[in-house]
């Protein structure tokens, strides 16, 4: 069996570091500009987590988790 390490090998064609570079410090919106990243450009399997939102603890290696602060600015990005 091959070794599978979550976040390093995934079917979505990117890794957490790539997405961090694209998203950190930006807000999510309908279109892209210097301060906003278009939601339509996110991977199909993703979720946006606000500080007060509840989330399931299930682990999906191909799901991109995007953490935002109270103002909607991306603060953390990881797979799982």
Structure characterization notes:
10% of the residues lie in helices and 26% in strands. With 80 residues, it is mainly beta. It has a single domain, classed as Trypsin Inhibitor V, subunit A (Trypsin Inhibitor V, Chain A), CATH 3.30.10. 10% of the residues are buried. It holds the Pfam family Inhibitor_I78. InterPro entries: Prot_inh_I78 (IPR021719).
Descriptors:
80 residues, mainly beta, Trypsin Inhibitor V, Chain A, 3-stranded mixed beta sheet, two-stranded parallel sheet, 5 strands, globular, Prot_inh_I78
In total, the number of domains comes to 1
Largest sheet: 3 strands, mixed
Q: Please mark out the parts with pLDDT under 50 across 5 or more consecutive residues, or reply none.
A: 1-13
How many H/I helical runs?
1
User: What is the first-to-last residue Cα distance?
Assistant: 21 Å
CATH homolog superfamily: Trypsin Inhibitor V, subunit A
Quickly name the level 1 CATH class: Alpha Beta
Total strand segments: 5
Mean residue pLDDT:
86
Instruction: Tell me which CATH architecture applies here.
Output: 2-Layer Sandwich
Widest beta sheet: strand line-up: 3-4-5
Which structural class do you get from the secondary structure elements? mainly beta
What pattern of helices and strands is seen along the backbone? HEEEEE
Strand proportion: 25-35%
Give the CATH topology. Answer: Trypsin Inhibitor V, Chain A
In one word, what is the shape? globular
Fraction of residues in helices? 10-25%
Query: What is the radius of gyration?
Result: 13 Å
Pfam family, one: Inhibitor_I78
């Amino acid at each position: 069996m091959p070794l599978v390490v979550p976040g390093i090998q995934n079917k979505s064609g990117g890794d957490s570091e790539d997405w961090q570079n694209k998203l950190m410090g930006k807000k999510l919106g309908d279109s892209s500009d210097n301060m906003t990243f278009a939601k339509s450009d996110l991977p199909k399997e993703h979720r946006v987590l606000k500080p007060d939102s509840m989330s399931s603890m299930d682990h999906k290696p191909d799901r991109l988790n995007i953490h935002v602060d109270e103002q909607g600015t991306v603060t953390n990005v990881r797979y799982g």
